[in-house]
Amino acid sequence: MDFQTDILTEAQYAGLTARNIRTVQRERATRTGPAFIRIGRKVYYRKAAIETWLIAQEQVQPRAAGVRK
Questions:
Q1: How deeply is 13 buried, as exposed, middle or buried, from its count of CB atoms within 10 A (0-12, 13-18, 19+)?
Q2: Cα–Cα distance between 25 and 36 in angstroms, integer?
Q3: Beta bridge partners of 39
Q4: Mean per-residue pLDDT for 24-45?
Q5: According to the model, what pLDDT value does residue 60 have?
Q6: Average pLDDT of 4-23?
Q7: Could you tell me the pLDDT band of residue 53, with boundaries at 50, 70 and 90?
Q8: Who contacts 7 (Cβ-Cβ below 8 Å, separation ≥6)?
Q9: Which pLDDT band, with edges at 50, 70 and 90, does 3 fall under?
Q10: Helical H segments across the chain, by residue range
Q11: Running DSSP on this structure, what letter comes out for residue 9?
Q12: 9 phi/psi in degrees, rounded to 5
């Protein structure tokens, strides 16, 4: 693992997902966001953890299986 390219800061993660940093902090506090790494007061996210979490959030639309007209 290359720390420089595989790890994102809290602000980078918020920017990547186009969300406010406060929203990211709230998700972390309620344990609804991706896994994170805390080193002292700094919070980091692994790109693989973000991807895994995003895939888990995927929802199938009820009518996507067969569109009736």
A1: buried
A2: 11
A3: 42
A4: 95
A5: 83
A6: 93
A7: very high
A8: 37, 44, 45, 46, 47
A9: low
A10: 3-6, 10-16, 21-29, 47-56
A11: E
A12: -75, 170
Structure tokens at 6: 């595989």
Selected from 1.10.3470, 1.10.10, 1.10.150, 1.20.1510, the CATH number assigned to the domain covering 3-56 reads 1.10.10
CA distance 40 to 51: 24
Q: Indicate left, alpha or beta for 63 from its phi (over 0: left) and psi (-120 to 50: alpha).
A: alpha
Report the distance separating Cα 34 and Cα 47, nearest Å.
10
Sorted by where each begins, the domain ranges of the chain are 3-56
CA atoms within 13 A on the CB side of 52: 8
Tell me, yes or no, if the pTM score tops 0.85. no
Q: Which of 27, 26, 49 is nearest to 37 (CA)?
A: 49
